[in-house]
Amino acid sequence: MFAMYADEYRHSMNAVLDRGAFILQSENRDFDLALAKYVNSKCAYGVANGTDAIIIALRAAGIGPGDEVILPSHTYIATAASVHFAGATPVLVECGSDHLIDHQAIESAITSKTRCIMPVQLNGRTANMDEIEKIAKKHSLIIIEDAAQGIGSTFKGRAAGTFGVAGTYSFFPAKILGSFGDAGAIVTNDEKLGEKISLLRDHGRNSEGTVVSWGLNSRLDNLQAAVLLTRMKHLDVEIARRREIATMYQNGLGDLSELFLPPAPNASPDHFDSYQNYEIEAERRDELKKHLSDNGVGTLIQWNGSPVHWFKELGFTVKLPKTDALFSRCLLLPMNSMLSDDEVQIVIDEVRHFYRP
User: Fold this and answer.
1) Threshold 0.90, pTM exceeds
2) Which residues, at least 6 apart from 20, have a Cβ–Cβ distance to it below 8 Å?
3) What's the rounded Cα separation, in Å, for the pair 334 and 122?
4) Do residues 7 and 151 share a domain?
5) Per-residue pLDDT tens over the stretch 125-175
6) How many Å apart are CA 262 and CA 279, to the nearest integer?
7) Do residue 162 and residue 302 come from a single domain?
8) Considering Cα of 269, then 275, then 276, then 280, what sign does the dihedral take?
9) Is it the case that residue 1 has pLDDT exceeding 70?
């Protein structure tokens, strides 16, 4: 992405370097405002990374020792680790056919210690939040969203990250809205919660610089804020291109019975997907992966092929057969806005050749 907008990036970074403005300066404030406007949230706070974003959101919401947080096992380890380092216990559940948290599994995992549901808005898709909100209301639970892969996606017109008391984002370079290093953010419509988030990210210091509580050092670097402001100018174009590629995959591969594809861009009026990733399920997945690699097409299996509940060293003993089955079949096909139509067609042709030689 650097080469596409190199001059803009250099200009924005040089403006920071020329002023020596590195910590909580105008770019940081401007990015907070731009992000809040983009997702239609009252408040946004840039932080050092997506993991810190979850930890801070949990702590600001009062989640800590003795509390349980329900989240899907199909996520990066950082989601569960954040719960752990907030002092709470991560409770892992199944994902549904859309690869997002299964709302029925949430209900069955609730105990007297449950305080929070943490949907992971994965692959650029927002979960069916109607069902999750019903469960949260029924059991008096809060929702904090891990929308690290969700930026740009919506459910019934509402942006990923804006359904719960807080939503968190990662701007790791591989994300649709990626920085040139680690970066993250938290959004909330609760201004009192926002005040706590602001204190927690900056050593407990208030707007006058006075320490009024314990806090962390997790401020969004101002250089990264400048980069993200530049990236935001092109975010809608980026997402539009990803949706075009998703349509090509649907048209080119949708008839193969050996594959299960993500929902197409026009599959549901309730969902607007930004296609952070294009995660399929495939019969003979490992053979397909090798065939594609042998023919110059790179693919990935998320989380290095391991859902969180497989990390037995961390004490997880839960059995999740649906997630186990998914991880014998799931695969990420190439998905980024720099792919040409010809390159996408090569991917399609090679997949088809594997199943229909």
Assistant:
1) yes
2) none
3) 16
4) yes
5) 999 999 999 999 999 999 999 999 999 999 999 999 999 999 999 999 999
6) 7
7) no
8) positive
9) no
